[in-house]
Amino acid sequence: MIRVVLPPHLRGLARISGEVELDLQAPVTQRSVVDALEIRYPMLSGTIRDHVTQTRRPFLRFFACGEDLSHEQPDAPLPEAVVSGTEPLLIVGAIAGG
Amino acid sequence: MSNVRVLVGTRKGAFILTSDGKRERWDVSGPHFAGWEIYHLKGSPIDPNRLYASQSSGWFGQVIQRSSDGGKTWETPGGETTPKPDAPPTGKSNKFVYDTSPPAGKPLTTHQWYDGTQHPWEFKRVWHLEPSLIDPDDVYAGVEDAALFRSTDGAHTWREVAGLRGHGTGPQWQPGAGGLCLHTIILDPKDPKRMFIAISAAGAFRTDDGGTTWRPINRGLHSPYIPDPNAEIGHCVHHVAMHPARPGVLFMQKHWDVMRSENAGDSWQEVSGNLPSDFGFVIDVHAHEPETIYVVPIKSDGEHFVPDGKLRVYRSRSGGNEWEALTKGLPQANCYVNVLRDAMAVDSLDKCGVYFGTTGGQVYASADAGDTWSPIVRDLPAVLSVEVQTLP
Questions:
Q1: Is B95 on the interface with A (CB under 8 A)?
Q2: B212 touches chain A (CB under 8 A)
Q3: Between A7, A8, A39, which is nearest B85 by CB?
Q4: What is the mean pLDDT of chain B?
Q5: Taking 80 as the threshold, does the pLDDT of residue B171 lie above it?
Q6: Measuring CA to CA, how many Å separate A76 from each of A62, B73, B376?
Q7: Which residues constitute the domain of residue A72?
Q8: Is residue A39 part of a domain?
Q9: pLDDT tops 80 at residue B185
Q10: Cβ count within 10 A of residue B138
Q11: Sign (positive or negative) of CA dihedral A44, A50, A53, A59
């Protein structure tokens, strides 16, 4: 079970609290996680990655296991600790502005 | 007795204020969408419980919200969970894609940037939502970078009205300080094929065939701060207003200058008259007196606050040129707020109510056409837009 932590604004938009749990087939990647999030919560479409380019929004970052995974390829496998559910994938909004 | 609902968009959420026809006591609901910028909310003229809201964020992009119960509950159209777990997401209500197809006319990929070079067209946010006069599922959106979009399915999906960007002058459009934004959409109540829009800093434009073809309507505008002060396009139009009984008469607050057109924008004449400053953002028309108009003068383009520390609405009962300051109930010392372009509206009660919101977070109302004012809510986040619904 993959655990995903969304930033508070997106939890509010999707009307959820706490972590999201996703049951995904291998290989588990950034793309497959966001695909699954958008299928379960269609209102998140376009908010994590651009509708057209499918690239991550510049003020969002992906972290896991104490590392910044934002510049990994979207189809690169996520760390085993994320795949096993030991560690969550953190989708974090940049600390910028007011 | 009628009721009034005031829809307020702010930098950090939306607020809905309601009162009975006396307009003395107000209930405040909100913040809705707390923490998000709400550039604009507006209700359908024929189904007042159908509201649309533009919710955006520099982090998460654009979201469109819709209410069918006057703002008690909201939904993102198409945001419901898909029936099959592996089906593609249906949430396209925030998908604004520029039309670059050949059938749309002349595919446009760049406009002028601040430094005069060409720059790619990039969607940033929806500035203004304008529901149709005849169908609550039909709604227009004015967006940054400037373009007009339309949804005919209650904001589930959007399609660009591409004839506007494609009519020929698009590559010369240049952003104003707030961006290259299409901020004003006016539907002609007597001619369903006619529509007016305005863009900062390109000017005003009109279609007479339902959006297929467009032309600039800026003759008579004079902007000494652009290379050709009388150019066909390039003027920083801040807002345009019209009285529905006289759709051929338009009033404009330009960057500097208050203007008037008698011929649906074919030509304009300055009516700034005795205003203390003719810089400003808002302009609106009395609900029952088509020659009574309101502006809020701002000191200058470099100092976006009211002159002399005094918050004054100016009213002209002659369609411009002769203006009177309305000050009763408004702060007349140490006030340095701005009133942004979509932050004034009127109700249609008798007497006409006038409402405006400030960057200081106050929403002021007058239940007597501007003679006296009082804050109906204060200390909100900076107000971006104010719309008013007069309910049966």
A1: yes
A2: no
A3: A39
A4: 95
A5: yes
A6: 13, 40, 54
A7: 2-85
A8: yes
A9: yes
A10: 17
A11: negative
Q: Closest by alpha carbon to B113, among B165, B173, B167, B169?
A: B173
Supply the pLDDT for residue B116.
87
- pLDDT at res. B86: 66
- Return the half-sphere exposure (C-beta side, CA atoms, 13 A cut-off) of residue B352: 16
The CATH number of the domain where A76 resides is what? 3.10.20
Is residue B345's pLDDT more than 60? yes
For chain A, the domain total comes to 1
For residue A92, being part of any structural domain is answered with: no
Please tell me which residue, A61 or B78, carries the higher pLDDT value: A61
Q: Do B60 and A42 count as a contact with CB atoms less than 8 A apart?
A: no
CA distance A9 to chain B (A): 7
B59, B94, B97: residue with CB nearest A57: B59
* B16 vs B26: CA distance, rounded Å: 10
pLDDT of residue B101: 81
Are B35 and A8 a contacting pair at CB < 8 A?
A: yes
Q: Which residues of chain A have pLDDT under 70?
A: 96-98
| Partner A contacted by B35 (CB < 8 A) | yes
Q: Predicted ipTM?
A: 0.90
Tell me, yes or no, if B109 comes closer than 8 A to chain A by beta carbon: no
Q: Does B86 touch chain A (CB under 8 A)?
A: yes
